[in-house]
Amino acid sequence: MLHAKLLKLQANQKDTMRSWRLFLTILLVLLSGPHLLHAEKIVITAPQTSLLPHYNLAATALNIAQGSNIIKLDVVMTKDDQLVLLSATDLAPFTNIAELYPERNREDGSYLVFDFGLEELQSLQIHQAAAPIDPDLQTSHYSSLRISSLAEVLSFLPQIEQATGKTIGIMIEAKQSWQHQREQKDLSAAIVQHLADFDFFLPPQMVMLASYDPDLLKALDSALPDLQRQKIQLYQFIDFNNGDEHKSQEGARWIGYDYQWMFTKFGLRLVSDYADGLGLHPEFIYDHNNQPIRPSYFENARLLELKLLVYPFDHLLTTGQPGQNEALINDYLFTASLDGIITTNPKVFDDIITTKLTEQAAELESPKTPIELFLENAKKEQAETEEIIKP
Description:
TIM Barrel; 391 residues
């Protein structure tokens, strides 16, 4: 009688262990997602001025030659409704426009891109708005370089892809849409038209559109054909409320846009209705003591399947202290689990991210994961129990 009870107890224990193994196997599969294995991180190369003025085709080619897989293109509209690669609307700081067109400035002295056609813009000499890092590149003018149009770059990319054998992704940021609105320029319509013209050449899931203006992104979301929208990602950038990237009109005045609603749970859901991701300042993620500011916000963003990018970031990097840079990148891309970063120095990030992902892969391939150790200990306990209850 006692022997039968012991056999029944053994059978129950075996069933329990099988159930635990099944549960832990399922758990391991579930945990092998983003919590244990981070997906490939996105590194986007932003326009940079350390080597060449970034508003031309030569700088784009240089970024690709240096290993960039995704390049960011800042665009604004011209007088004749063309899109050109510029990060600002005032031409005076980086061209000789005041010499060629001294009478065409506005009352405040500015020479705005909206007052000049593409042909006029491409007749200008361009130079660095800031001094280049390399002392051998102190030439103030680049007479052979000119402002490039977005159409030229989109035509150029397939040739580069054919020559290099790799697919180049692009992020197009619509700059200062509020100024376009003030000038009655439809920036979203121009972008949609360009994407339609070059749709055949654009790689699926490798095209991103970004803006600080939620209304512009909503217009893009509505205007893009369904099939095209499925392969294009929209990113809502969030700035400080006193920033110049986006403003709202109050009467005759333009004031800094208030982004505070986007940091609410309800606002985040509204953003997810038209956008696929967010671009956030690092100051919105960690405070000055390196403590997470709003962890629940990022959890909610992930539940809504929004990708998270940090931008701008380069001002946090230090020279001569690679360990500190590695710690920073680890904090944002792995501890905070952000999906990617926009930088003017992709090489720094590529090396650190590759090392980190390699380490993670090695840990997962280790024969003694925490769950395997748990199962091993459970087996030992079962064996000890069976030894005790042997008749």
